Amino acid sequence: MTDLPKVDVVGVGLNATDTMIPLPHYPALGSKVEFRSANVLPGGQVATAVIACQQWGLRTRYVGKVGEDAAAEMHRAEFSKIGVETHLFTAPGCASQQAFILIDDAGERTVLWKRDHRLTLQPEELQREWVTGARALHVDGHDTAAASQAARWARAAGVPVIADLDDVYPGVEELLGSIDYLITSRDIPGRLTGEPDLTRALRALQRQYGCRLTAATLGQDGVLAWDGSMLVYAPAFRVEPVDTTGAGDIFHAGFIYGLLQGWPIPRQLDFACAAAALNCKGIGARGGIQRAEAIEMFMKAGDRHAAAFVADHSLSGLRQNEPAQ
Does the predicted model carry a pTM greater than 0.85? Predict the structure, then answer.
């Protein structure tokens, strides 16, 4: 067996081919809307996060599956150009995952996507040393069985596991038991716990699955996290968005980067928020990735959105900031 070089981050999860379609506004039912362009760009949750980490100077490895088409060659070329060590499996006779993304003038996007079941990454296709030879593992929950296998190997080897969950996938409970840093979209903590209050849901997730940190990204409201002893809130940075595609992917990359620098949690969240905001100034999931130094400068000088949560000392935590009447 060939000895693999040690890497900082290994990503096991989705890649996608995104067709970006800017529109003046979202189409009304039965209407016709002229689109301005249709750019085909690489994306995908874990693949995009790995690309960002590589561009910030981390050594990276990516494990995923593509179809037998031109999109697969585009992914291979992109990983090679950036310098990511790549282990791409090919699903014969099918297309790579694709998405058509409608972007309005406010930068908000609507995603139409398709993924052939043959693109599912299988646990038996993974190799343990791909995971244990890294300082951190990043997964999404889509190919849950493969992600769970990788996370178990990582947990056994003392490799921290970061997860990006945007849905409650079948069998995800098995994966959650091996996650150290669970960072989900806004609605996932409530859906997993049945607790409508976000602060309580994050606490419940941490207690149930033993994560080091549970967090939810909140779009322009920032991010809220629970580390087992305190709630940490970071407001989002204010930019004029061109396209919000990939903001969550880049947030996770920023969190991983900060984690591997040994930064305290508030600084990790600030860096992740700043990286995500800047990415929204470009088209595509990776269109606005900035240098780490530029992100640090933006952290110091950038404006923030109004805080969505405020300190509540009587509860030793945070509460939702009520809108003005």
Answer: yes
